[in-house]
Amino acid sequence: MIHVNWEKVEEIVKKDKPKSVIIVGPDGIIDVLLSVASKLESIGVKAFVSGDPSYGSCDLQTNKAIVTGADLIFNIGHTIGLEKIGNVRFIDLEYLFDDQEIKIIADLVLNYINEKGLNGKIGFYTISNYRSAYIKLLEFLKGKVEVAEPAKYDTLLKGQILGCNFYSAFIPDVKYNFFLGESIFHAIGLQLSTEKDTFIVDPHVKEIQYVGDEAKKYLKASFARIALANNAEKIGIIIGEKEGQANLQKAEFISKQLETFGVKTFRIIMNEITPEKVNKFQKIEAFVETACPRIPMNVEGFEKPLLSYPEALALIKLKKKLPVENPFRGAVWY
After folding, report:
1. What's the structural domain count of the chain?
2. From start to end of 62-136, where are the E strands?
């Protein structure tokens, strides 16, 4: 069952008294956003529903408030360790599971650990949409398997990882990672960043999957893109327009580094980085984007190699004749 924290919305409306708001959220929850809009309208608040998906707390869409004159933006489904950023308020969207379901998931995890002979301390992580289920699951596992306490990070919830931030998982003595959720991308990112065997626990279908083989495919594809980009004489440096993705300084750093090796770089600014837009730059042989590391990994259709910031750093190492290893190893990818 999907649950939106409507009580928090009401509390914010009562305190801040907005006349109009923008409602944004991830792809796939338009009906939820429309429901929230209807409730807001019923209490006298004008609501605008964003037709553009928000990809996280880095994609706040504050420009929509400027265009419409809205007082607040409700970002639904991307809760982090901050209540707000500017005029953006983060609202919980969670998949809820009753105690019986959580027990089934806990038994599934314990049986899997025993069957696979996974001895030693494990790390357990999730995303905000499974926060309540995660806390309950840890209670069920207590005393039955040794689960490490996640590392603390100011802007993350307990045990939370993002698509580009895995700081919670950087703790000593952990041998295996488990991820609660259905997003295999987050699980693969966990494996690549920590270089520890990682298993995704899908609470919906009640299945566990090892993601190491998929992570190897991602890494192989990454090395291939880096090698192709190394032959490019003209490279486009794409800067994202979204508030939390601009990273102009990183773009300038990459540009200057590449130019020391005789590469001609072109600065390009985009809001949404898509194959349709990037492929129009026919005379450019490769691209680096500093907006989101997820784009080269997850989006297909780019005709030329497109590198994320960590991959661009690996490209520079390659040009310096330094050893190039896993570019994604590390707590953060930005």
Report:
1. 3
2. 72-76, 84-85, 88-91, 93-95, 122-126
